[in-house]
Amino acid sequence: MQWTNLNEQTVYENRWFRVNLADVALPDGHHLDHFVIRLRAVAAATVVNGANEVLLLWRHRFITDSWGWEIAAGVVEEGEQPAAAAAREMEEETGWRPGPLRPLLTVEPSNGLTDARHHFYWGEEADWTGDPVDGFESSRREWIPLKLVPDMIARGEVPAAGMAAGLMMLHHLRLG
């Protein structure tokens, strides 16, 4: 039951995304016009310290008018490797420069509409470099006990699906 993208035309484009209209052939031979949003990759990183606390940001998302805990994240710039982007974003948003980062997981948060890929990384060491350059990104940054993550997600305190998936994977890796 594979759908086939026969052609795409750009309808709108800016530096953040591109909206395309695709001519899609369905398995039964019919055609469907389908909008596709093309996005740059996103990279995210956090650190778990020796006390099994994870570094998170408490922030407001105006689009959904919701508050929640997140991992520092941002777009991967042209020519940048996702792990380097994740480290850069973590330092800019938290003031903590991570040591070596390990891949955690990659997710496609809305693959029925976008081609976005979110790459998550984690490490076990970080150095405080000072107040975050992008302090406006969050209201606060805190070290949260990793053991609390599943209950936080269940209560809706981590509303972003990719963030919840990354934190659950980290919880599994560290605490079983």
Write a concise synopsis of the structure shown.
The chain has 176 residues and is of the alpha+beta class. The protein has helices at 82-94, 149-154, 161-175; strands at 4-13, 17-25, 31-39, 42-47, 53-61, 66-70, 72-75, 96-98, 102-107, 118-123, 126-128, 140-145. The protein is elongated.
Describe it for me?
The strands form 4 sheets. This protein has a 4-stranded mixed beta sheet with strand order 7-4-10-9. It has helices spanning 82-94, 149-154, 161-175; strands spanning 4-13, 17-25, 31-39, 42-47, 53-61, 66-70, 72-75, 96-98, 102-107, 118-123, 126-128, 140-145. The model has no long low-confidence stretch (mean pLDDT 96). The longest helix is centred in the last third of the chain and has 15 residues, at 161-175. The protein contains 3 helices and 12 strands; from the N terminus they run βββββββαβββββαα. It is elongated, with a radius of gyration of 18 Å. The protein is 19% helix and 43% strand. 29% of the residues are buried. It is α+β, with helices and mostly antiparallel strands. Its cofactor is Mg(2+). This is NUDIX domain-containing protein. Residues 38-166 form the Nudix hydrolase domain. Keywords: Hydrolase.
